[in-house]
């Protein structure tokens, strides 16, 4: 049996627990007493062994103490001796430091004097050399050795910089400038010939001369000048072909007077769109050949020479390019093509009336721009080895002819959309006479509903044009244009709604709050339609047409919401593509740092130099505003079209008001004279027989209203079915129909109650008849599951109660069953004083 002594060292050692554990670990066949005896014996033996070991080790430790004491004393003596030696050394170092400082100061003064003497010697040498060079420079020029002349002039400039601003050498400084210009003039013809005939060695030699005299910029100028002439010839081919077409047209016509019109109609046979790709291809091929040659002739400069050539080329052809773009856009539309005018002329407003900017104008420009984008990508690939700023300037130059148009993009888009919106015909049918309003209403509503997807398609096309033409850099102008156009369109819808009120016969109604509360005091003045002149079928056709207007509001709300969500998605996508422009670039690393939620990403800026980035790179303020807009678009609560969203909601409310007015108009007609009906104040007729003094049947005015309310659900069913195009919307459609049913029923009840309040006096006979009428209306409301208002129940109860029992009924009720204010009003109608 092994005994573990580790548990004895634990501070929380429990002897009883340890013994119990030892007992549990015994073999089942061993006796408990024998096991405990063996355990005690082992513990005693181990205790004796531990005591003996401890005694032995203690004795050995005591013997080692004197030896350790002697070692400590020896080490202390050595430390004292070492401290004394170090103090002596430090004293000697301080003495040496004092004498050395004086020596170093003296040496510094000597070195300064030596440096000044050497500088003076060199200056004297340079001055002497400058004088000698000035006297011999003409001989060097006369020899025709241009490299030697360049070296001489370089030495003269070095000497002048060494002697500084000395009055004696002012003439030599002027002479040097004249000589440098003279040498450059001698280099120019040789360099031009070398560039034109691709003489590598001569070009390199001339380049070295210009660099030696600090005229490297002249190399760029001469290189650009030589090649720009050839490129201009490529560009002028278009106009030469146009002139050829014009001459051919004049010759074939035989009449110079008619040739101009014929040319204007046929000169687009060679359109800019068909010619521009070939020009770009030839120009790109030319530049590629120059790039290859420059890598050999100017291995240190080709990365700047070719981009410089592209920049100067685009700068030279830019005015002509803009003019050609303008005319090419005009060719897209026959009216502007006939006048030889373009989009810039349309924007200036100097055009005949009736000729407006069209989407085809901008589409034609976008096609030209797409061709230029392809060329720009090729140029970017060709000049990919150039520095970032050089490449950026080159790309800006390529896109520069379109910048004039991009700056006016917002104005163009507004004009296009306004023109397209103006073409919509929302009132397709002319105003019709009595009996045909339903046809006019149905036709107008159909056109309103069909116009909504057309407008959304126009807006979507505008978004696509903005992205294709500006890369999204004019997103703020786009949003402003879309918002304005939506407001214009909704205003057209509202104007149409106002005209439809007259068609529906509800153009003189009070505001909705008064209608719902029943505050109308002159119901007869509400509806100008004559009930006798309009058939029942025509009335229901007007009701059905008015209900269809709800689909217009629903379609506008849903379509505008979907479009706005799509617009937010497009803006959110632009926030990634335009991130280079928005956040800036590290010019040293040519990398862009992006703060991302998950990680810090790195984008290659050169790969992201699209048209929008190029535009925004040097427009930090515009980039900042655009960045804020794009960041906002990521929020689902963001309204890309804030004003339009509000107007859409207001339009839906206006539609609801119109539909409500139409649905409730028949009720107003039937109840308009209710409070003034003579039956309420009619006296009881005397008869020899005991007959009822009132009709047991409700009167025609209330049965007409009841029948109308009971028929209304059938009119709502087609509309509900149109909304519920699938099973998922069935519940929504059912709720829609029920909501309108309740709204009309409650409105009719409110009007009825208000008319009842207007009765000044009612006899017992009138009270009994009115009670029957109210009971009928209450049954209709119950059939429609519309709760009966307490006021109406109070009228019914108080009017059906005999006059001599009414006082007791009211006093016995504590307000739980009757509306006390209404009950008091009924007492006044029946000439009953409750105080008696």
TrEMBL record:
Kindly list any coiled-coil regions of this protein: 29-56
Q: Which GO terms describe its biological process?
A: embryo development ending in seed dormancy; Golgi organization; intracellular protein transport; meristem structural organization; protein retention in Golgi apparatus; retrograde vesicle-mediated transport, Golgi to endoplasmic reticulum; shoot system morphogenesis; unidimensional cell growth
Q: Might you report a single GO cellular component term?
A: Golgi membrane
Query: Which membrane topology describes this protein?
Result: Peripheral membrane protein
Main subcellular location of this protein, as a coarse class: Golgi
InterPro entries the UniProt entry points to: COG7
Mind telling me which Pfam families this protein's record contains? COG7 (PF10191)
Tell me the keywords, alphabetical order: Coiled coil, Golgi apparatus, Membrane, Protein transport, Transport
State where the protein is found: Golgi apparatus membrane
Family statement drawn from the similarity comment of this UniProt entry: Belongs to the COG7 family.
**What PANTHER family does UniProt report for this protein, alphabetically?**
CONSERVED OLIGOMERIC GOLGI COMPLEX COMPONENT 7 (PTHR21443), CONSERVED OLIGOMERIC GOLGI COMPLEX SUBUNIT 7 (PTHR21443:SF0)
Write down what this protein is called: Conserved oligomeric Golgi complex subunit 7
């Amino acid at each position: 049996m092994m005994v573990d002594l580790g548990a004895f060292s634990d501070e929380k050692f429990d002897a009883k627990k340890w013994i119990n554990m030892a007992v549990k670990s015994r073999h089942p066949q061993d006796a408990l007493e024998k096991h405990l005896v063996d355990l005690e014996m082992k513990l005693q033996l181990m205790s004796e062994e531990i005591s003996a070991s401890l005694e032995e080790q203690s004795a050995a430790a005591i013997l080692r103490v004197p030896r350790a004491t002697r070692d400590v004393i020896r080490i202390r003596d050595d430390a004292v001796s070492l401290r004394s030696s170090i103090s002596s050394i430090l004293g000697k170092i301080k003495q040496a430091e004092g004498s050395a400082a004086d020596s170093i100061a003296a040496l510094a003064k000597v070195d300064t004097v030596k440096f000044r003497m050497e500088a003076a010697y060199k200056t004297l040498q340079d001055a002497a050399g400058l004088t000698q060079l000035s006297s011999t420079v003409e001989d060097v020029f006369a020899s025709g050795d241009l490299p030697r002349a360049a070296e001489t002039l370089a030495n003269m400039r070095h000497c002048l910089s060494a002697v500084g601003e000395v009055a004696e050498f002012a003439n030599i400084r002027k002479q040097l400038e004249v000589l440098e210009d003279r040498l450059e003039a001698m280099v120019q013809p040789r360099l031009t010939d070398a560039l034109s005939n691709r003489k590598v060695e001569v070009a390199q030699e001339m380049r070295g001369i210009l660099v030696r005299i600090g005229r490297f910029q002249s190399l760029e100028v001469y290189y650009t000048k030589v090649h720009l002439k050839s490129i201009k010839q490529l560009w002028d081919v278009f106009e030469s072909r146009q002139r050829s077409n014009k001459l051919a047209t004049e010759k074939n016509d035989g009449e110079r007077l008619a040739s101009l019109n014929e040319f204007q109609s046929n000169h687009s046979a060679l359109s800019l769109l068909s010619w521009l790709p070939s020009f770009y291809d030839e120009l790109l091929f030319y530049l590629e050949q120059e790039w290859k040659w420059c890598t050999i002739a100017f291995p240190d400069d080709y990365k700047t020479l070719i981009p410089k050539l592209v920049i100067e080329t685009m700068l030279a052809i830019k005015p002509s390019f803009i003019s050609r773009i303008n005319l090419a856009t005009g060719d897209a539309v026959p009216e502007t093509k006939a006048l030889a005018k373009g989009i810039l002329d349309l924007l200036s407003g100097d055009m005949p009336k009736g000729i407006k900017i069209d989407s085809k104008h901008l589409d034609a420009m976008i096609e030209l721009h797409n061709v230029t984008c392809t060329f720009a990508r090729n140029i970017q690939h060709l000049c990919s080895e150039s520095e970032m700023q050089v490449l950026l300037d080159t790309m800006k130059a390529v896109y520069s002819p379109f910048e004039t148009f991009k700056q006016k993009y917002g104005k163009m888009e507004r004009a296009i959309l306004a023109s397209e919106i103006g073409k919509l015909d929302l009132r397709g049918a002319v105003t019709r006479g009595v009996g045909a309003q339903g046809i006019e209403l149905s036709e107008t509503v159909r056109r309103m509903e069909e116009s909504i997807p057309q407008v959304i398609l126009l807006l979507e096309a505008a978004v696509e044009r903005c992205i294709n033409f500006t890369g999204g850099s004019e997103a703020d102008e786009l949003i402003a244009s879309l918002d304005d156009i939506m407001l214009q369109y909704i205003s057209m819808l509202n104007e149409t709604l106002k005209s439809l009120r007259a068609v529906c016969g509800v153009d003189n109604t009070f505001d909705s709050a008064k209608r719902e509360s029943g505050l109308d005091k002159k119901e007869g003045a509400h509806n100008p339609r004559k009930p006798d002149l309009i058939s029942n079928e025509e009335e229901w056709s007007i009701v059905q047409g008015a209900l269809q207007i709800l689909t217009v509001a629903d379609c506008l709300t849903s379509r505008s919401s979907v479009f706005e969500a799509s617009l937010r998605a497009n803006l959110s996508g632009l926030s990634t593509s335009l991130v280079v422009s928005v956040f800036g670039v590290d010019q040293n690393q040519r990398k862009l740092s992006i703060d991302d939620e998950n990680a810090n990403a790195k984008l290659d800026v050169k790969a992201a130099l699209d048209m929008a980035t190029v535009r925004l790179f040097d427009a930090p303020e515009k980039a900042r505003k655009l960045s804020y807009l794009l960041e906002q678009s990521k929020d689902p609560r963001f309204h890309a079209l804030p004003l339009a969203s509000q107007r859409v909601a207001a339009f839906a409310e206006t539609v609801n008001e119109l539909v409500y007015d139409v649905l409730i108009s028949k009720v107003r007609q039937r109840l308009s004279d209710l409070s003034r009906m003579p039956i309420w104040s009619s006296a009881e007729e005397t008869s020899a027989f005991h007959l009822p003094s009132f009709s047991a049947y409700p009167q025609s005015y209330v049965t007409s209203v009841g029948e109308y309310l009971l028929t209304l659900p059938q009119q709502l069913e087609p509309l509900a079915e149109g909304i519920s195009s699938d099973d998922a919307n069935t519940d929504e459609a059912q709720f829609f129909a029920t909501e309108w049913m309740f709204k009309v029923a409650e409105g009719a009840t409110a009007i009825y109650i208000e008319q009842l309040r207007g009765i000044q006096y009612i006899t017992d006979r009138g009270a009994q008849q009115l009670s029957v009428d109210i009971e009928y209306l209450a049954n209709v409301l119950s059939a429609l599951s519309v709760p009966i208002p307490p006021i109406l129940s109070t009228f019914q109860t108080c009017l059906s109660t005999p006059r001599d029992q009414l006082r007791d009924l009211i006093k016995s009720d504590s307000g739980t069953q009757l509306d006390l204010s209404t009950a008091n009003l009924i007492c006044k109608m029946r000439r009953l004083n409750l105080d008696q």
